[in-house]
Design a protein that fits this description.
TIM Barrel; eight-stranded mixed β-sheet
């Protein structure tokens, strides 16, 4: 696999700094029951990295000490971590809003039959990746049979109340392009998704988030192998919108890897560009337990243009 970091380090991306810390995004490990072409984490069934119970305890201590409002749990498939339910139940008990970045098909895996009920019981918001409403497109990007399994999982969630009007159970879908292009307008795309999924399978959901593909890891390596890396970077830079700098996700979020080390965002984590604080880097979450990192400069590189291009892109969808 090609390393994209040497192509991204020299950057003219504008300097930015964080504001108030609201969200703690935690990567529980790289093991996944899928191997998607666009995955910026390089997750898959053969990965074994997993956050330990000790680091889970550090996460919970940090949440309490820093008064974190939202715990955003990701992976791989985060639910495959042996301590996933412990983390969710403990965070729920202290009133934290929890987001599970779910690939949907995990809900149908043997041994995880009770997972959907567990998520509903703990009022976990689900952000589920579904890159298209067409079966052939999803299976081409994520693997044969993934579309039908995803539809089955969505029906299971709807039956529990997820995504329905008057329900507190939030079900949001995540779209990303299949190739080196920017996502279409999020509002119109959401209307199309809602109409198509309801007409095809009777499925409802709350919001669609569109996310640009980052030129890193598996997707970035594919760009290099096809000799279109620079072309894609030119697209991102030419579509840069200055106003998106005000709301990029790294201003109010920090990312924790499976070992407990801190990064400004999930993408920096995948590039091994650690958060820097007081002239130190490679900081463990336990090192920041009593620290105020507001106004701290954010580590940047050329991939940051992926978050500010066009309508903008974040873990919460379009910025504008």
């Amino acid at each position: 696999m090609y390393d994209t970091l040497p192509l991204l380090k020299n950057t003219d991306f504008p300097a930015i700094q964080r504001s108030g810390l609201e969200t703690l995004q935690v990567n529980l490990g790289y093991k996944c029951n899928q191997s998607c072409l666009h995955c910026h984490v390089n997750a898959g069934p053969k990965r074994s990295e997993e956050m330990t119970r000790d680091n889970i305890e550090h996460i919970l201590s940090f949440i309490k000490k820093q008064n974190i409002k939202t715990l955003d749990v990701t992976g791989g498939a985060p639910e495959l971590n042996a301590h996933f339910k412990y983390l969710v139940s403990q965070a729920h008990a202290i009133g934290v809003h929890i987001i599970d970045r779910c690939n949907l098909t995990i809900l149908n895996e043997p041994g995880y039959e009770d997972l959907a009920d567990f998520l509903a019981t703990h009022k976990v918001e689900i952000v589920a990746s579904l890159p298209c409403y067409l079966e052939e497109n999803v299976d081409a990007q994520r693997g044969s049979g993934v579309y039908q399994s995803s539809i089955e999982a969505l029906k299971k969630l709807n039956a529990l109340g997820y995504g329905k009007e008057q329900s507190s159970l939030q079900l949001n879908l995540m779209y990303n392009p299949a190739g080196p292009s920017l996502p279409p307008g999020q509002q119109q795309l959401e209307k199309d998704y809602k109409a198509e999924l309801f007409n095809r399978a009777g499925i409802v959901f709350n919001t669609l988030y569109s996310l640009a593909n980052m030129p890193i890891k598996r997707f970035g390596s594919t760009l290099i192998s096809k000799n279109i890396f620079e072309e894609y970077m030119d697209l991102l830079k030419s579509a840069h919108q200055q106003q998106n700098l005000k709301t990029v996700m790294c201003t109010s979020l920090i990312s924790v890897d499976w070992k407990g080390y801190i990064f400004d965002c999930d993408f920096n984590q995948m590039l091994d560009l650690p958060l820097k604080f007081n002239n130190q880097s490679r900081l463990h979450i336990s090192d920041l337990l009593n620290e105020d990192i507001n106004d701290n400069p954010i580590v940047i590189a050329d991939h940051c243009y992926g978050c500010t291009a066009g309508q903008g892109s974040s873990c919460g969808g379009a910025l504008t």
